Amino acid sequence: MTAFHEHEAGGDLDVFYLDESGFSSRSCVPYAWQPKGETLRLPANVSGRTNVIGFLNRNNEAYFHTVDGSVTQGDHGGDQRFHLI
Q1: For residue range 19-71, what is the model confidence (pLDDT) as tens digits?
Q2: DSSP annotation of 2
Q3: CA 39 distance to own-chain centroid
Q4: Which pLDDT value is given to residue 76?
């Protein structure tokens, strides 16, 4: 990282840090307490998953992009300035 920060200080590149988080309307209920012999049922709303990837640099510049489904290495919000390494 030191080498990247040195190139950043020289104006050769911008270093951004990436994080990803996902959101889903699908509830995760692995178990529940219920009276013996009774089955609890919860209504389900299954609509898939939306992920958000965010890029942040040391100057607090931030860029965000949503992705429906899985995030892959090629997901950079259509912005060709971002290359994941």
Answers
A1: 888 887 776 666 677 788 887 776 666 677 788 889 999 999 999 988 877 77
A2: H
A3: 35
A4: 54
Which residues contact residue 64 at a Cβ distance below 8 angstroms, ignoring those fewer than 6 apart?
Answer: 52, 53, 54, 55, 77
User: Residue 26: how many CA atoms within 13 Å on its side-chain side?
Assistant: 9
**Considering the entire predicted model, what is its pTM?**
0.58
What confidence category does residue 81 fall into, taking pLDDT thresholds of 50, 70 and 90? low
Residue 80 corresponds to which tokens in the numbers above? 């060709």
Burial 51-73 (b: 16+ CB within 10 A, else e): bebebeeeeeeebebebeeebee
CA–CA gap between residue 60 and residue 67 (Å, rounded): 22
Name the residue type at position 23: F
Which residues share a beta bridge with 59?
none
Classify residue 57 by its DSSP letter: E
